[in-house]
Amino acid sequence: MHNFQSLIWRRGWLLLVLLLVCWTAVASPQQVATLPDGTKVVLYDDFTWAYYGQNITYEFDFSTLSPDTLPEFLRQGFQVEVSIQTTAVEMFLQGWRYTMPSPKSAQAAWGNSDGRTTWFCGYWYNSSTDQASSAQPEKRQNGMYLGDGQDFRNCYRHGGTPRFPTELEWLLSQQWISEETSPLAGGYGAGVVATDDDIYVLECQDVTNACNFFSYSVSRGVWIQETTAGLETGMFRNGSVLAWDGDEIIYALAGARYKDSSRAIFMRYQIGADSWERLANTPVAQGAGNAIAWVGYDSAIYAFVGSAKHNSGSSSFVRYAPETKTWEILESPWKSTDDGASLSWDGDMYLYAFRGEYDEVIPNGEFARFNLSSGTWEKPLADLPDSEGVGDGGSLLSIAQWKEEHSDYIYALSGGSVSEAPGYGFYRYSISMDGWERLSDIPCPIGYYVGRRLAYAAGKIYYWQGSPVSDKWLCGGDAFFSMQVDLPVPIQANADVECPLASLVINEIEMNPAGEDSGAEWVEIYNPTDTSINLAGWSVSYTNYGGGWEDLPSVEIQPGAYFVYTYSKRRLHNENGKQVHLRNTYGAVVDSTAAGLKDTRDDSYTYQRIPDASDCWRFVNATREDSNNRN
Questions:
Q1: Which of 624, 619, 366 is nearest to 520 (CA)?
Q2: Can you say how many angstroms the Cα of residue 368 is from the centroid of all Cα atoms in its chain?
Q3: Domain limits at 263?
Q4: Helix (H) or strand (E) run with residue 84 in it
């Protein structure tokens, strides 16, 4: 995204030159200007700009558009004029998606004008630029679609009903499609797993009820009752989880109530034989913090077993070898796991994990991965950025085994909130960037009961609601949905154009260091240019106590080098989300952090531009005075 203000900010030493160029261009829709380093730019009268000769190109043949058919990556459903399709395709390829309004209250329904209704707002979001917009983005003269910058991702409104979507909103909305309603709602023992072509759902309401076990045939669109012979009444309890071995077996941890102090039942279901068999008990007692995954790397089952209320408040990370039918206890990254704990194998050499809601009051989104080659945990990774953390029904899912192009991504449901409110969050984690992106919220909330809710089969991601049957949870608890997921598509530009480097940038910021903040908060300034720059006369802003500026010392920053400035006092507010600015010797702001950054962790995590000097900010472990680039 290029606007005139960003050009001035990034090239503060050219401020006067560019202002004169802009002033003389008033009478013309565009003006070509040459910067001192020889770079030519085009300045447009809508205050956007582009490098001279750099045209936006798309890997799409627009001549194929027809009013009778829609490109498969757009939401289907009706005929649309070619001109609107063209706009939709351009916006899609630039990264824009629309999230439909979703119900927050039990009374909310399309067309319901009841004043008690509450809706989450619809919003636009660009995953390529991390820009949100409350209004439809508009195409500017440089070819880019720009929004209004208003972030409505956590907005909700009382009363009435949202307007129906426009054609563009419809075409660019990620669609959860309602599938055949499942034969059962949630229960204390519940879980989901998929094979290549079928989804399996297990449910036991409580210890006094018989268990239910169904499969959903994706090709036929019907639910089929599977056998429960050999399963005692109430066999599956809190923490029941399932894993498929890629062939004929589904493994299951049976879970336990809080008062079941030593329950360790481990089962397997043979798909072809339609039969259940009990295997060797887990080495420690199970609980709500159970999680399980099949790992093809070494053809074994990996699991978290236990909870914050079992085994003296601890969970164990364990491995089961089917060949020897034995368990072994491995190193665990956490003392305990609990509601929402989940595991997912990435199809290669890593196993990803949610810790879950081990504290019933403080939200927690802890996330880590296990290196199957070295047998060690790598943590911390970026927490799930949901304000309510990971809770009941939290789920992780990698689909790289089936779709190699998704090997950089892990999908997740956040589950119910720490306050036991229904959960709608659906996310995608980028492995290479160690960052999360919120996708289209699920239409029917999950929560209250633990166990995996996500699965992948036959080219789609599926989720089963599996919640209680009550007005609070909407949809009846038995809803079943699918989604065709899209990869983020970066915009393509002319490869022949060499983009000039920016001026000095704020490359990293530590807002909330471990321990005492005063005298320990810092910003890292990076010089991506090919000339050295002295900081004499430069200043950096702060966000506490109404905001202000601190002068930087007379330090020479060599090309490609970093300088860390430590604030003299507690200067950075952890939660107000205000930007920190860098000002040059002319008093012009040449760079700023992203808006809305918050840090309540009190540890070594910092916000960083990844890669260095880019516009992408990620919250990861500090790389003070070193490159942020991820190989």
A1: 624
A2: 14
A3: 185-453
A4: helix 82-93
pLDDT of residue 502: 45
> Contacts for 466-473 with beta carbons within 8 Å, 24 or more apart?
466/185, 466/186, 466/187, 466/190, 466/192, 466/201, 466/203, 466/393, 467/185, 467/186, 467/393, 467/422, 468/185, 468/186, 469/185, 471/106, 472/106, 472/422, 473/422, 473/444, 473/445, 473/447, 473/448
Position with higher pLDDT, 577 vs 314 = 314
Do 509 and 402 lie in one domain? The reply is no
Task: Report d(CA 109, CA 375) in Å as an integer.
Answer: 50
53: left (phi over 0), alpha (psi -120 to 50) or beta: left
Taking only the tens place, the pLDDT of each residue in 146-172 is 888 876 655 666 666 667 788 999 888
Q: What CA–CA distance (Å, rounded) separates 299 from 18? A: 62
Which pair of tokens denotes residue 314? 């601890």
421 has a pLDDT exceeding 70: yes
Q: Are 446 and 522 in the same domain?
A: no
Please give the helix or strand (H or E) that residue 82 lies within, else none: helix 82-93
611 within domain boundaries = yes
Q: Is residue 530 one of the residues assigned to a domain?
A: yes
Instruction: Report the CATH number at residue 373.
Output: 2.120.10.80
pLDDT (mean) for 109-131: 68
Tokens of 304: 């978290």
Sequence-distant (≥ 6) Cβ neighbours of residue 52 within 8 angstroms: 32, 39, 40, 41, 42
In this structure, the chain runs to a length of 631
Phi and psi at residue 157, in whole multiples of 5°?
-130, 145
